[in-house]
Design brief:
Length: about 325
């Protein structure tokens, strides 16, 4: 059953599925994604055995409610949609519900009606994004929520630090890492996805975890910005440059096409793109269009030394 992300998400990967799906290993034991966010790659692949997690407690609660109580969630979201106006938005934003159903319904409602679909909290963990200027926001799609519920049935969902989730990773597992991005400039990131920021120290710690997963024999794919820090700390792996359109930014001049990287420690199974339906944004039959030349050498810790590519193809290999 086809399922699309039910949330807007800063850095969401739905638009990049045509780049990412050909790079997913053809065979792997289990799927692990410790920064689940909007879950675009998870919903596109729908793995049979999966561990998904996030440090954002409300996000994790929302995934659990979508999986376990989709019809009750639809009913509550219908009420929010009926009541939606500016006063109602700020009233609900100020609340701090404890019931999982109420947490999930509030989370989705705010996500779909706030400014630019941004999720941001202050250091006290309080959501602080103003209302967006939508005339008739589509807060939910019942059929898609039910499809997401079905896709999540086999997943183990956890509220956890990424390191805790990665302790589960074993040889043959596929790990997709999509952390908060390293900023391209001192003013290009917002604060904060959780009340604990993800800065340079955390990026370097994650790179150490990446190398440990490589040593364990895991297939590891990581997405991040093309900041020099990221290029430096992942030297020795296959780093591919992709262009993405980013519209979730507090400043208009910060939106538009930006370069991101996808970092692999293994030989991908395909050399082309997967065709994506423009209406549904979901993959259809894989079609190679010759934009990503196949790599002849091995990937990761077994790579041979080679100069960085200077081709015009949309990837960059850093050794």
């Amino acid at each position: 059953m086809q399922a699309n992300p039910f949330l807007k998400w800063a850095g969401g990967k739905r638009q990049l599925l045509s780049h990412l799906l050909p790079l997913v290993p053809a065979r792997y034991s289990r799927y692990l994604e410790p920064f689940i966010g909007g879950g675009a790659l998870y919903f596109a692949t729908q793995p049979r055995v999966a561990f998904i997690a996030d440090a954002n407690r409300e996000l994790v609660t929302t995934y659990e409610v979508v999986r376990d109580k989709p019809e009750a969630l639809v009913a509550r979201l219908t009420e929010h949609r009926t009541c939606h106006n500016q006063d109602y938005y700020y009233q609900l934003r100020a609340e701090q519900p404890t019931s999982p159903l109420e947490v999930a319904a509030r989370f989705i409602y705010l996500n779909k009606t706030c400014f630019n679909g941004l999720y941001r909290v202050n250091r006290s963990g309080q959501y602080n994004v103003p209302i967006g200027s939508y005339k008739n926001p589509q807060i939910f799609d019942r059929s898609n929520l039910l499809a997401c519920a079905s896709a999540l049935k086999s997943a183990i969902i956890r509220h956890a630090d990424y390191r805790e989730t990665l302790q589960e990773a074993k040889s043959g597992d596929f790990v997709y890492l999509d952390p908060p991005y390293a900023p391209l400039s001192p003013t290009s990131s917002f604060t904060s996805y959780t009340k604990d920021e993800f800065g340079e120290r955390q990026q370097r710690e994650l790179a150490q975890c990446y190398r440990e997963l490589d040593r364990r024999g895991c297939y590891v794919m990581l997405s991040n910005s093309s900041a020099q820090l990221i290029l430096d700390i992942y030297q020795g792996f296959d780093v591919r440059l992709v262009a993405a359109t980013r519209m979730i930014n507090s400043k208009a001049d910060g939106r538009g096409m930006v370069n991101e990287v996808v970092i692999l420690n293994y030989q991908p199974p395909a050399s082309g793109f997967v065709k994506v339906d423009e209406r549904t944004k979901q993959p259809v039959n894989p079609v190679s269009v010759g934009l990503l030349p196949a790599n002849e050498d091995a990937i990761g810790s077994h790579q041979t030394e080679q100069q960085p590519s200077t081709s015009t193809y949309p990837f960059l290999r850093i050794r």
